[in-house]
Fold this protein.
Amino acid sequence: MIDSTEILRQVNLYLDTHKCQRQPESLYAPVDYTLSMGGKRIRPVLMMLAYNLFGEAPETIIPQAVGLETYHNFTLLHDDLMDNADVRRGKPTVHCRWDANTAILSGDTMLVLAYQRIAEGLSGETLRSVLDLFTETALEIGEGQQMDMDFETRNNVTTDEYIEMIRLKTSVLLACAVNIGAMLAGATPADQKLLYKFGEQLGLAFQLQDDLLDVYGDPAVFGKAIGGDITSNKKTYMLISAYNHADDCQRAELDRWVQATTFDRSEKVRAVTRLYDELGIREICEERIAYYFSQSVNCLNQVSVSDERKVVLRQYVDQLMIREK
C-alpha cells in the first residue's frame, strides 16, 4: 500500500507541474505563489489515504485532492487579507506582495479553480454527490469564519460556541476530504458517514492542539513566536476556559490584560500563561484533545475494511497529533 510520504510527494509534484496556463499572468501568478508556499497538505493526503482504504491507485484522484487543497489555500489567502497579516509560512502574504485588490480577485479565481479541479474527470451521480458535499462544506466554512469574526466583539462566548465555530471553520474540510476519498473509491454510505465523523472529530482535536501550541509550543519548532492568540485576545478554547474557571481576582487580572490597549507583548504573554498554569488550562485542553481524538479513532475502527488497510491512515493521524508545530 502507498504511504503518506509518497502521497505527499505526488501532491507536491502535481502542484509543481500543473501551474496555471491562463492569462493574464498578473491574475494567476498569485495563485501559483500561494500554492507554492508549502504547508502540510493534510487535506489532500487525507483524501487519498481514505481512498486507499477501499481502492487501489489513489493517484487517480489527485485532481480532486489538489482541488480541495486549492480551496483551502483560497481561504488562507482571504483570511490573511481580512486579518491584515504580513507573513504566511515565512513569506509575504499576497496582499503585501501585490495588493488587496489582487488578493481578492486571485482568491476568487482560486475558488473557481478548486471547483474545476474537483470536478475533473467526474460525471453523473458521482459528480453531483461530490459537488454537493463540497459546496455544503464551503458554505459551512464561511459560516464558521463569520462566527469567528463575531466572537471578536463578544465577551460571553461559550466553549460550546467555540467548538461549533472550529467545527465549521476547520473540521468540516477534513471531514469532506476523507468522505470524498471514500466516495470516489466506492465505499458504502455507512462507511462514508463514519469517515466523515472521523475527519470531523480529528479536526476538532487538531485545532485545539493549535490553540495549545500557540501558548505552550517551542518557538524554535513552532516557526514563530508563541502567544499570538494571547496578544490579540483571540477567543480560543484556552481563554474561554480560563474565564470559566477563574476566581474573581484571576478574572480581574484577565480582564486587565484583555482590555489593555498598550502593553509589553512578552509581559502579557507571560502573565496570561501564568494564569493558565494556575487554572490548569493546559490540562483541561489536553483532555479535550484526547477526547476528540479518541472519538475519531473509534469511528475509524468501525469502518468495514481490514485493520491492515487502516494502518497507513492510523500512522498518519498519529503523527498529526504528536506534532510540535
Notes: The radius of gyration is 20 Å. Residues 124-151 form the longest helix (28 residues). The chain has a mean pLDDT of 94.
